[in-house]
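Example 3.2
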Amino acid sequence: MTITKSAVTAVPVHELIAERWSPRAFNSHAVSQDQIHALLEAARWAPSSYNLQPWRFIVWNRDDNADTFDKVYATLSSSNKAWVANVPVLIGVFADRRGVDGQENGAAAYDTGAAAFSLVLQAQALGLHAHQLGGFNRSELQREFAIPDDIVVQALIAVGYQGDEALLRDDLRAKEQAARSRRSLNEIAFTGQWGHAF
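Structure, written as tokens:
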């Protein structure tokens, strides 16, 4: 059985945002090259400071190269390994911290996050699901795939089709079934100055 989790928002928002969530139950159905291309194209058109476009991605498609995929899988935390086992595609998200005139790009992580979210929304638009994760060994990933020192490992994104949550182990199934929640706007948005609730 699959789960839908539409966000309960204070005011209406676009359905791509309201319907987007991060499942842990995936099936192993292949994601096509055309779909992957669309995800990367959506990320490519994200905004960035000075138009530096600091985002970089590595796609690991289990169908294309299971051995390489397994090397990424080996870097995951044990809790993530438990649910990523069926995911067909992992995408590494990286930020090039080199800026203008030899200066460090202070917006590199921010801009890369915007590109990653563009990718995630495009996945939603294609009927896929994307789950961003940070539970993995960054230094091991950097070493295993010869990522240059100027490139910062940001995240991994699991991409695929939603699977049956009943197949998850108990603790993960409980997370899958839990209601979505967010802080209130009064906690995260202010008017005029810090602490004046929106």
